[in-house]
Design goal:
alpha/beta, 9 helices, single chain, two-stranded antiparallel sheet
């Protein structure tokens, strides 16, 4: 499988590794094994530039990630070069998360994300589930996202789910799902298999178990990427980091998992209406 790959039948082409951006907007209430500092603007600009140079075109954010959306809107250059994923349903205020899945909140949240990100469309919008996936699906949030898709404000819709039942129900009604899948957690594999059989998109969260993969494994990151990116139906892994060197290491391992070898020459891309395709002529 190639490093650049289709995200189901959405029409979007994404890098097999996407950049998660919780760490540029929020450092409270997160479950990473070690503390980190939110980087300043110049560090974020450098991180985004390194991601682009490495061939990454996928970026993941959310209202629940503190100031992530706002900072990306200020610091991203060439918006059309990026496939941007954001979410609705979870808010983070005063150090705590809370959820609102009403249709009215979903529409207001998307409009706010468009404003914060300084764009007139979002490539993907996912419902940020609280774990009660089937209950969330009954609240009308997805219907609003589909309306906004018809209005041209969203290109693809789905949900970040936490259960197999929720993932399957989401894919029966939408374009994609974001699921947990790694060396230690494989119970959501049926959702990925359904996606592969029905042309749906899959994004993977917690590919490295939020930094808690087996420390006794000689290279747990490579092993996890080999498993995930070798699984039919997977579009991309979302991995968060604020360290450019760690990002480069992860891209090298993702490319290896995709069967590529050598340097990053394959990371040069042309742009087409917000989609990236290999520039075979250069």
């Amino acid at each position: 499988m190639a490093f650049m790959r289709p995200l189901g039948d959405t029409g979007l082409t994404v890098s097999a590794l996407g950049l998660g951006t919780v760490k540029i907007g929020r450092d409270r209430g997160v479950k990473y094994p070690s503390a980190f500092s939110i980087p300043d603007d110049q560090a974020v600009i450098a991180l985004l530039a390194r991601a682009r140079n490495l061939g990454i075109n996928l970026i993941d954010t959310a209202p629940a990630y503190g100031r992530s959306e706002e900072r990306l809107g200020q610091l991203l250059s060439d918006r059309r070069a990026w496939v941007i994923v954001s979410k609705v349903g979870e808010e983070f205020d005063h150090g705590e998360s809370h959820f609102n899945f009403t249709p009215e909140h979903a529409r207001a949240s998307v409009e706010r994300s468009l404003s914060r990100l300084r764009t007139d469309y979002l490539d993907c919008v996912l419902v940020h589930s609280d774990g009660n996936d089937l209950d969330v699906l009954r609240q009308g949030t997805l219907e609003v996202l589909e309306e906004m898709k018809k209005e041209g404000k969203i290109r693809a819709t789905g949900m970040s789910t936490k259960t197999v039942e929720g993932g399957l129900a989401t894919l029966a009604r939408t374009d994609l799902a974001m699921v947990t899948y790694n060396l230690e957690q494989r119970d959501e594999r049926p959702v990925i298999d359904y996606a592969a059989a029905h042309g749906k998109g899959i994004l993977i969260k917690k590919a490295f178990a939020s930094g808690h993969l087996d420390p006794g494994h000689p290279d747990p990151v490579q092993a996890s990427l080999d498993l995930i990116l070798g699984t039919a139906g997977v579009g991309a892994v979302i991995a968060g980091t604020v360290n450019p060197d760690h990002l480069q290491e992860n891209v090298a391992k993702a490319r290896r998992a995709c069967g590529e070898s050598g340097g990053f020459g394959a990371g040069r891309w042309t742009l087409d209406a917000g989609r990236r395709t290999p520039d075979a002529g250069r």
